[in-house]
Design brief:
about 65% helix
Length: about 90
């Protein structure tokens, strides 16, 4: 839903900016849920402690860059303006 909102509100923005916002949002959500499930509830769903540039083992730069790359097809071909209208 957030990605559809970004697509709708930032129609003329460069694809790279939209993908960067998408990656930041996805990484933030991953961090929040990682802190809840992995650190608080001790579920150990994922662990990035062995990855470079990680934060508490819940997020890391390589996966954030992967989210950025995965946002390219999402904004280019999947999320369209009419998708946002269906949810609002």
């Amino acid at each position: 839903m957030f990605l559809a909102f970004v697509q709708r509100e930032m129609k003329k923005a460069p694809l790279l900016l939209k993908c960067l916002l998408g990656a930041v949002f996805i990484t933030a959500v991953e961090f929040i849920f990682g802190c809840i499930f992995n650190l608080t509830l001790q579920m150990n769903v994922w662990n990035y402690e062995n990855m470079p540039l990680n934060l508490l083992g819940q997020i890391c730069l390589p996966f954030s860059l992967l989210w950025l790359l995965l946002c390219v097809p999402v904004f280019k071909w999947i999320v369209k303006d009419d998708l946002y209208r269906r949810f609002v």
